[in-house]
Amino acid sequence: MKTNYIFITGGVVSSLGKGITAASIASVLESRKLNVTIMKLDPYINVDPGTINPIQHGEVFVTEDGSETDLDLGHYERFIRKKMTRHNNFTTGSIYSEVLQKERKGDYLGSTIQVIPHITNAIKKRILQGSKKSRISIIEIGGTVGDIESLPFLEAIRQMSNDINKKHIFYIHLTLVPYISVSKEIKTKPTQHSVKELLSIGIQPDMLICRSEFPVPKNEKEKIALFCNIPIKAVISLQDLDSIYQIPKLLKLEGVDKYICNYFRIKAPEADLSEWDTVIYEESHTNNIITIGIIGKYIELPDAYKSVIEALKHAGLKTSTMVKIQLIDAQKIENNKGIDLLNNLDGILIPGGFGKRGIEGKMMSIKYAREKKIPYFGICLGMHLAIIEFFRNVIGIKETNSTEFDPKCQYPIIDIISNNKNNKNLKATKKNKKEIPIGGTLRLGSKTCILDKNSLVEKLYGKNIIIERYRHRYEVNHQLLDQINISELKITGRSKKNQLAEIIELNNHPWFIACQFHPEFTSTPRESHPLFIDFIKASIKFQKTNNNINIKNN
Ligand code: GLN
User: Fold this and answer.
1) Hey, whose CA ends up nearest to atom 9 of ligand 1?
2) Whose C-alpha in 32, 151, 457, 528 is 20 to 30 A from the C-alpha of 420?
3) What tens digit of pLDDT does each residue of 180-234 get?
């Protein structure tokens, strides 16, 4: 079976939603029973996004096989059923790193190493590797045409139409068609320029997807077709919609999948988007409105919490609820009266995070949720802090902390992962402290967790063996935890290997669950996650019982 390649580039401006468009095309093709995969090529020099501050590029998405990837892979998994792996995302940095290692080993036998052909060859090899066994492979190129950084990627995908018969290569270019409100005109010139830029690199797009505020009228489509040398059927209008989950349907209506299948001469059943119709129906039929506060420190960029926000919304779909999200800066809570920021919340969630900044504000929010019996959901760092807060304020061990925030802490209830402690290369001494690598040294990916019989979490999952995704460097110090017999705080999930504490529940609280793993990474609009669903149900109940009925309009 031959693989067919669809390359997606972007032009005019960034942030047009290339990732979501690519994912939506993949989902329409997958609904035609085709084996589709999807990849993201990132032009930056970091080897992976794991070391980048989420404020810059958004969250780091973790795949089942434990790779730290671009947040677009989260969109891909929310739109298609295929699971992503380390082969579905790579950066310029990882390509250079591979080529340089080979050069040091002498693998190039005396050649001068150059962008063309060595870097471009390495890029093409990764594209082929990630596309293996798929009928259609969609490859999204990060950045915008004209950026210096993405040039080697564009050159590599240009070359591929010579390496492989052009019949199996399809280029899509996503552009902006702006509406000028003063003159009430739709402008096609930026698209024409962007295509010109792409042509100068040697790529003639086969399809243009035009992002716009309103549907692009026939006249403008004809103009674009004429100037950009593209059949009118391949000029697609993708206007702003109420929800991203309506995009697959619009693309089908515009004939995108049909055009692509004809181009590749693929015979496949009609696209069946009934599951997306259900999602759209659920989105527009809600009986409740609740507000969940996410207490974090990367709140300037909501994309930093993309999967958590989406997972809350998915749970809303399954409970007929519109979930409003308030991103609250943890540091603001530390200020006098900052706790008032939590006043109107129906549920409090503390997501993953790294470093000391804002942790006291987060712990104040946990104390507030615990005492006021507001549903609390802690994820990863949110679990560490829930345990520290409990030890400090309920048990009374004030000096407890995580060694992440206080390396010399007397009573470290959260400590560096024991495996890392015993690993000589990662063991911190005074001398080597600065040399311990930060990149690639976390506990990552899918692991098995065993749930306590008769616990709430077991009831919610409906089973007692679960697989969830992890990303952390610190863990519960159960040598200390096991010394204390606390009936109020229960460990209700432990790792299959090593019996690490992975889930905690508070007993005398309506809903207080915290987990070491990241359930947000496995939630999709079609299959929401049991912990998120129950958290939303508990928050609805909290709102009702507290008569906390605020009139919350859009
Ligand atoms: N900073 C904590 C750790 O490294 C928590 C990580 C997270 O929340 N993803 O263990």
Assistant:
1) 352
2) 457
3) 989 888 999 999 999 999 999 999 999 999 999 999 999 999 999 999 999 999 9
